[in-house]
Amino acid sequence: MSESNRPGTHSAPATPDWEKRFRAPRVSLPDWAEDAPHRSLFVSNATGTYELYAWDRASGEQRQATDRPNGTTDGVLSPDGTWIWWFDDKDGDEFGIWRRQPFAGGAAEPAVPGLAPSYPAGLALARDGRTAVVGRSTDEDGTTIHLAREGEAPAEIYRHRESAGVGDLSHDGTLIAVEHTEHGDAMHAALRVLRPDGTTVAELDDTKGGTQELGLEVLGFAPVEGDARLLIGHQRRGRWEPLVWDVATGEQTDLDLELPGDVSAEWYPDGSALLIAHGFEARSELFRFDLATRELTRISTPPGTVSGATARPDGSVEYLWSSAEEPPAVRSTSGGVVLDPPGIVCPPSVPVEDVWVEGPGGRIHALIQKPAGATGPLPTVFDLHGGPTWHDSDSFAAGPAAWVDQGYAVIRVNYRGSTGYGRAWTDALKHRVGLIELEDVAAVREWAVSSGLADPSRLVLTGGSWGGYLTLLGIGTQPDAWTVGIAVVPVADYVTAYHDEMEALKAMDRTLLGGTPEEVPERFAASSPLTYVDQVKAPVYISAGVNDPRCPIRQIDNYVKRLEARGAVHEVYRYDAGHGSLVVDERIKQVRLEMDFAARHLPGA
C-alpha cells in the first residue's frame, strides 16, 4: 500500500490542468530602454498578481517594481532607462495619476505634480529623462495633452471635447504626434503633429475629401536624431498598412507590401529598416523591410500568433508567440527563449480548427476546439470576443482550454466588427450594433448544429466585455437558440451604460450608433439587452467588477432587477475590481463559478 493510500493519511488533490494554465508563470514581451538597451520592463504574474518587473540584462537581476492589491500592467520605461513610469488607479477604475520610480529601486513619486487624476490618454517620454508628454481624459474636459518638464508646472498644449491621445515624441523631442477624432468619428482617427509649444507643424486626415471612412494611426517617429519621418498606419486600400510620412517635407512613402491581411510596423533601432507584423485569417508572421532596397524578408516564426515583437540593437528580433495548443513564450531570432520564469509548467491544450461559414454579410471565420478524439454532438460553448474591434486568433487562451478540459467544444466567431478581415468587415456593425454581430453568430450556430458538432440542447453563449454584451443581447433576441448565458463584465442597459462610462467610450458609442441616447433613442433601444430581458429563457450568470468604468455596475444592476422581477433563473457575482481582474486566484474563482453554473443548468453536462 502506498503512503498516500494508508488509512489516516491524506494528500492534496491534484491541481487540474485548467487551473495550472492560469497559475503558470506568464510574462509579457519586454520593453527596453532606447539609450540603455540592457534595461527592460515586463509584466509577470509570478506572485499571483500581474505586476511590473525591472530586468537588468547585464547582471541578470529581476526586480518586482510594483505591488498593488489589484495588480499593475500599464507601465513605461524611460528612454534613458532611469525611470519606470506606471499608472496608479483605484481598484481598477482606470482613473488616477502616473507615478515613477527609479529603475534600480526606490520609492514611487507622482510623476507629474500638478496634474489632477484622469483617465490616461497616451504618454511619451523624452530622451533627456526630464520631459514627458501626458494625455488625459475626463468627463468635464474631454481630452487634454500636457508638456511636463521636471521642476516646471505642466503646460497644456492641446484640448478638445472629442477623444484624442498622445501618439509619439520625436527622437530629439521637437515634434509631438497626436491622434485625434475632432471630426466626431471615434473609429477613424486623424493625425496632427505639434511643436512643444502646442503650435501645429503638420496635419493628415483621411476622413476628408471622400465618401469612405478611413483612419490613421501613429506607429512611431524614426529613432534618429533630427529625423522627421513618422511611421503611420493607413486604411486607403481597405486594410491597415504602414507608410512613412516625412513631417518636414510632407512627402509620403507608401510601402505597398502586397500582403493580404492587416500590416503593422515598427522601426529597427538604426532607422534603416522596418519590422513588419502581418496578420491574416487568425495567424500572424514577421518580416524585415529594408527601406533603401525595398526588400521584404520573412523572419522565421512557428505557425500561430505573434502577439508582439521588437527589433533589438544587435539586429535580433524578440517576439511573444503562442498557438491555441502551445502556451506563450518570449522567443528571439538569435535562438532560444528570452524569458523563462520558474514555476509550474503550463499544460498545452488542443489545436484549433478553421471553419468558414456563409453568413448574411459574407464568409465568417470561426475557430473550433474540441476534446481530443471526441465526436459530436457535444455540449458547446460559443465564446465571443470583446472589443468589438478585436479578433480571436490561433493563440493560447486559458479560458477556452478550460472548457475543452471539461468535455465541451468551443467555438469562437470573428463576427462583423472584428479586425483582421479588412476595413469593410470591421466597420460593418454601425447603427444596428450588436444585432449584426449576432446574425453572424447565428449562422455559425446553425452550421455547428447541422454539422453534428454541437448538441442544440446544450449550447452556452458566453463572452467578456463586448462578448458579454453580445451574450445578454443574444439570449434576449434569440431566446430559443441558447441553453445557458454567461456574461462577463457586460453592457446590459445601453442607455445607462452610456451615461456612466468613461468619456472615450461615450465617443465610440456615438460613432457606432450615430448619436447620443437622446438623439437616436430607437437605435439605443434596439441594441440594448435590457429591451429584450423579458424574452430571456436561458438561465443567466453575470459577473461584474464594481469599479468598472467601461461596463459600469449600475446598468448591470438595472438588468438584474428586471430578471428578479419575473423570477428568472440567474446568478450574479460582483467583485472588487474594474474591467476584469489581474489577480490569478480571483480569475480562477470566476472560471470555476462559470463552469459550475453551466454544469448545473445543462442537461447531462
Outline of this structure?
The chain is of the alpha+beta class and 605 residues long.
Architecture overview:
The chain has 605 residues and is of the alpha+beta class. It is built from ten helices and 36 strands. An eight-stranded mixed β-sheet has the order 29-30-32-31-33-34-35-36, with helices on both faces. Strand 25 and strand 26 form a beta hairpin. Helix 1 runs antiparallel to helix 2 (398-405). The model is unreliable at 1-11 (pLDDT under 50).
Mean pLDDT: 95
Shape: globular
Q: Main beta sheet, described?
A: 8 strands, mixed
Strand neighbour order, sheet with most strands: 29-30-32-31-33-34-35-36
Strand content: 35-45%
Query: Helix segment count?
Result: 10
Low-confidence stretches: 1-11
Which secondary-structure class do the elements indicate? alpha+beta
* Count of strand segments: 36
Ends apart, CA distance between termini: 35 Å
**Alpha carbon gyration radius:** 24 Å
Q: What is the helical fraction, as a range of percent?
A: 10-25%
List keywords for this structure.
disordered N terminus, globular, eight-stranded mixed sheet, alpha+beta, four-stranded antiparallel sheet
Question: How are the SSEs placed, and which strands pair?
Answer:
Blueprint: H1 17-23, E1 31-33, E2 36-44, E3 51-56, E4 62-64, E5 75-77, E6 83-89, E7 96-102, E8 109-110, E9 119-125, E10 131-138, E11 142-149, E12 155-160, E13 164-169, E14 176-180, E15 190-194, E16 200-204, E17 216-221, E18 229-234, E19 241-246, E20 252-254, E21 262-267, E22 273-280, E23 283-290, E24 296-299, E25 305-311, E26 317-322, E27 329-332, E28 337-339, E29 353-359, E30 362-369, E31 378-384, H2 398-405, E32 409-414, H3 423-426, H4 435-450, E33 454-464, H5 466-477, E34 484-488, H6 494-500, H7 503-513, H8 521-527, E35 540-545, H9 553-565, E36 570-575, H10 584-601
Parallel strand pairs: 31-32, 31-33, 33-34, 34-35, 35-36
Antiparallel strand pairs: 1-2, 2-3, 3-4, 5-6, 6-7, 7-8, 9-10, 10-11, 11-12, 13-14, 14-15, 15-16, 17-18, 18-19, 19-20, 21-22, 22-23, 23-24, 25-26, 26-27, 27-28, 29-30, 30-32
